[in-house]
Amino acid sequence: MEKFAMYGKLIAHPGKRDELAEILLEAAAMLRDNEDCELYIVNVSDSDPNAVWVTELWSSQDAHASSLQGADTSGRALIAGAEPLRLKPLGGKGF
Amino acid sequence: MEKFAMYGKLIAHPGKRDELAEILLEAAAMLRDNEDCELYIVNVSDSDPNAVWVTELWSSQDAHASSLQGADTSGRALIAGAEPLRLKPLGGKGF
Question: How far apart are CA B49 and CA B15, in angstroms?
Fold first, then answer.
């Protein structure tokens, strides 16, 4: 099975970015024991004050999809939009 | 010092994507012993046949900048464009 990667861009409602980032960091902590989740890094940018990017790497696309079931939805009200970029990771350092 | 992350999107000349990806995978292998480089994952996408994305995580922005000095330029002729997205990683799994 091929690994699955994603750059999950989320756009927070104005003023809600940091709160959203905190929720996503909590989500990352919850994934600590999920062996299918290899990376779940939360990022922000100086150039876009409303965006949060999550760098994701999973053992498979199915594993990623499964993780969304029952996922905590407490952040949903903070999110104005989402622009996920799904990728096929080939290899490299940290792969 | 804050860590530094980047989604390095490179657009290859038509038909050159796979060759560019191979060169970047070699670059990743060369970074194996660089302790400042935490991630250097090479990705492609089904939706964009010319693009390669490199998921990068460095101990600092300076460390990333230093790595570019003396970097192998053999891939440059394959690259039609670059759209780097520089990020501030906050934390998470794999951070």
Answer: 8
